[in-house]
């Protein structure tokens, strides 16, 4: 004759094994046991000072134990209820942690970059600050070694950097006013050193005043990128890719006058 197998309600209510849920459950049980141990220790110390009360407490515990032994089913139901309540607390805590983590990820995703949140008026910077600002843009977009090298004897290079894909970037910075555009002679001087002297893979001229048409024509012939105020603002505020990415696109060396 087949023997029916009784299945407890706990097994029916439990879902598939979850390592994180089980870990939190054990942690909660450990905290409960630790608290109970501390309470028993305090009771034991108190019993040393009040022996009569200790005898009464022990007697009550023995009576409770006998009642529990006589009523196993009720004790099991209590244990199941306590276990389910503990898992409910754990599940609620895990849900809160997941919700907080998801909220933090969403906040980081929607948060604007620091440069985009605070647009820079590059035309108001002094020449050295302008060079440093361009170097910082390069570092922001992956050129970790970007540095300002401009000064006497720089031979046209104000910023040197290595792009994320390993190419050498040479930048000349022209902090001009709106009525002073970089001309072809300036581009020619840069073109004579950026490749032969500085061994550039990507040559870039950034001018806050823009460029003349002859300068743009020369830059197109020599594969020199020209970033005027509009291109610089788009790059700075995240509206356009960095120059070494734009260099791979058609007509990358042209800029509006």
From TrEMBL:
GO terms for molecular function: DNA binding; restriction endodeoxyribonuclease activity. Keywords: Endonuclease, Hydrolase, Membrane, Nuclease, Transmembrane, Transmembrane helix. Pfam families: Mrr_cat. It comes from the Bacteria. GO terms for biological process: DNA restriction-modification system. The keyword Hydrolase applies. Residues 245-257 have a biased composition (Low complexity). The keyword Ribonucleoprotein does not apply. The chain crosses the membrane at residues 51-69. InterPro entries: Restrct_endonuc-II-like, Restrct_endonuc_IV_Mrr, tRNA_endonuc-like_dom_sf, Type_IV_Methyl-Rstrct_Enzyme. Residues 124-221 form the Restriction endonuclease type IV Mrr domain. Residues 238-257 are annotated as: Disordered. This is Restriction endonuclease.
